[in-house]
Design brief:
29% helix; Arc Repressor Mutant, subunit A; homodimer; eight-stranded mixed sheet; 2 domains; Nucleoside Triphosphate Pyrophosphohydrolase; 243 residues; DNA-binding; alpha+beta
Chain lengths: 243, 243
DNA sequence: TGGTGTTGTTGTCAAGTTTACAATAACATT
DNA sequence: AATGTTATTGTAAACTTGACAACAACACCA
């Protein structure tokens, strides 16, 4: 019942998911990209794309995004935020994209509608390496060049959504930090996301009055100056405080 | 090139758009629904669904949503907000929905992924009547009963998105009001959207200091008490003030 | 060991924003 | 002219935001 043989004229639309995986190294925001190699007019070309893939027959959208990420990075439990569907005909106006895709999935493609997801991850968790034929790597978001399909647009939209989401959900950005972090790391993260300087004293004050950001009795190790105190984010306290 | 004859085992996924059209009558928020009539096990049944339809082969998602609305209501220029894609397998767990759909589109259906849109309209603009076989009508949002597919979930999510959108874009809710409106109408709208009382004096003060909400030299007509002043929303001034 | 360099940590005040609260004005109806 | 109903307006306290600079800690080096 879930498969059927059909014979009819039909636009060949496909449904895929693409994941904008954002990481933070204490200094810059980066995005996880897949290196793509293709051939067009006898020329080999290399470029990059967002990790993504077609959904399976029996798979929910969210599950497909989760699977794509797991296959690429090994990351299992992750907060995925579905933020937009892209279905413009223009998506496949670059022949290289269409040919690459048809080669990859062995089917004719007229259009592909993709559902885009955001995942914020601790940068250490994303296990790099090759997945199938494709190498993946972190690229600082302001060093991203031309991507396949409309992935530059998707990335731009995603960053805007992260900004908005961080405003309505103060816990969101903690997904980018390690379990123990300094106020400087947190402050730098805010500055990168909002694109403007945060006053040192006011920022510290603001964090100190959040009871779900807990000061630890530990300090940074191995720095050539006064070591900063470490903090942790307590998700249970956060959820309780939301009520 | 945009059509091709294929013969292969294939899950029959379709892509549709559904529109959550919200209106406000000065008192309550309502949503535009389509009456659906179907037959199952020899029994005729009536229920309601969100307006929606399959996308055409050469049609962008946004254009499809716009077309569906125009066909149903006659509304042409409208701000459509795409807010979520729904693709769970559970969407088609009710056999009545599947059979109704297969009868409507004359194709087998395994799953249907739908892209959901929100439109806020002035309630007077939505031209009611029948569209094809289907009658459409406004239903107050807290009187909505069981809808087809997962449309109750889509509606719930949409209202949440309207709330969030109104917070980040102060011009958003003016789409629901007539060109001339009273402060009471505006205040009632805020109370319905946010679900809590707004203080009369503070609300008036807040509105008075928005230079894009302009007091007119006109008053309400035909009320059996002191007539309230009319205001209008100036979109150009709003856009200028945003900078 | 004392000095230097680098980053961490902390408080106060002014300005602006939000909240709470009630008396009077306008006007149609009787 | 009295009544009923809704419209309109101000002030003070609480709270939040933003600007601003001195001292503390500690590794490193001379």
């Amino acid at each position: 019942m879930s498969e059927k043989t059909i014979t009819m004229p039909l636009a060949v639309n496909h449904i895929s998911v693409d994941c904008v995986v954002i990481g933070f190294d204490g200094e810059k925001l980066s995005v996880l990209l897949v290196k793509r190699m293709g051939e067009e007019d006898g020329q080999v070309f290399h470029d990059m794309k967002l990790p993504g893939g077609l959904i399976y027959t029996d798979e929910n959208l969210d599950d497909a995004a989760r699977r794509v990420l797991r296959e690429l990075t090994g990351i299992k439990t992750i907060d995925l935020l579905q933020f937009k569907a892209y279905g413009s005909k223009d998506r496949t106006k670059d022949k290289r994209d269409v040919h690459w895709l048809e080669h990859a999935i062995q089917m004719h493609v007229d259009r592909i509608v993709t559902i885009a997801y955001i995942a914020l991850v601790r940068i250490s968790r994303a296990l790099l390496g090759t997945s199938g034929d494709n190498e993946i790597c972190w690229v600082p978001i302001d060093e991203v060049r031309q991507l396949a399909f409309d992935h530059n647009i998707i990335l731009r939209d995603a960053i805007e959504v992260v900004r908005r989401q961080a405003q309505t959900d103060p816990s969101y950005l903690f997904n980018l930090l390690p379990p123990k972090f300094t106020i400087l790391q947190l402050r730098t993260l805010y500055e990168r996301v909002y694109g403007k300087r945060q006053d040192v004293r006011n920022f510290q004050k603001k964090i100190n009055q959040l009871d779900y950001v807990i000061a630890l009795d530990e300090r940074e190790q191995g720095v050539a100056h006064r070591a900063a105190r470490l903090y942790r984010f307590d998700r249970k306290l956060f959820k309780r405080a939301r009520r």
